[in-house]
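2024-03-11 09:14:02 DEBUG pipeline.ingest accepted 1 chain
2024-03-11 09:14:02 DEBUG pipeline.ingest length=236
2024-03-11 09:14:03 DEBUG pipeline.predict start
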Amino acid sequence: MNLRILAVAAIAAISAIGIVCIIYIIAFGTARSTDPAIWGQFGDYFGGVLNPLFALAAFLSALWSISLQQRESRAASKQLAAQTEIARKELEAFSSERLGEEFLHVIRDIDQRLSALLLEVISPPNASQAITISQMVAEADRIEMQGGSSPAFTQFLHYANSPGSVVEAPVREIKYLVNKLQEFLEHYSKYKAKGFAPVLIYYADKAYQLMNMLEAIGGMPPKTREFFATISDPHG
C-alpha cells in the first residue's frame, strides 16, 4: 500500500470524526458538562456512529487488499508461466542444437571413412597403374549412362563378391557405412520436421553417387537408392 492511499485513508478517518463532532455540537451545543453520565452518553454516541463506519471501512479495505493480492498473484503466475515457457524453449533449442551437432559429427565421421575407403588401391602391387575404388565408382556411372561393358569393372565385381579378397573387405565396409548413413539421416528426418540442412544434402548426394557401383556389386537394400535420391539435391 503506497503513501497516497494511506494519506487518503487518514484524511477520510479524520473527516468522519470531525463530521460526527460537528453534528453533536449542532445538536447539543458546546456547553461543558461535569456529569459523568453525559460523557458516557457522548462516548456511546461516538462509538455508535464511528465504530460501524470504521468497521465498514476496514471490511472494504480487506476486500480491496484481497482483490489486489489476487491481481498480483495472477500477474505473478502469468509472468512465471511466461518465464517457464521461455526457459523451456531455450532448453529445447539448446537440446536441438546439441543433438544436431552430434548427428553432424557422426555423419562427418562416416563421410571421412567412406572417402578413405574410396581411395584405397585395389590393383595388384605390380600393376602399371594404380586403380582405386573411386575409379570403379566412376566406371559404374559411365556404364550406367553410356552402356557397354568394362573388363576392369567386371573383374572388380568378381573380387568384390569374393570373400577374403583385398577388394571385398573395403567394399563390405562401404556398404556398411552407406547403410549407417541412411540410418542416421532417417533418424534426423524424424527429429527435424523442417527438412535437411544443406550440408546433409551434400553428404547424401555423395552417398547417392555410389549407388551404381554398389547395386552392381549387389547386396544393397532395395530402397537405399530411393532414400538417397529423395534427399540428394540434384536427384530429389
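2024-03-11 09:14:41 DEBUG pipeline.report Residues 36-118 form the longest helix (83 residues).
2024-03-11 09:14:41 DEBUG pipeline.predict end
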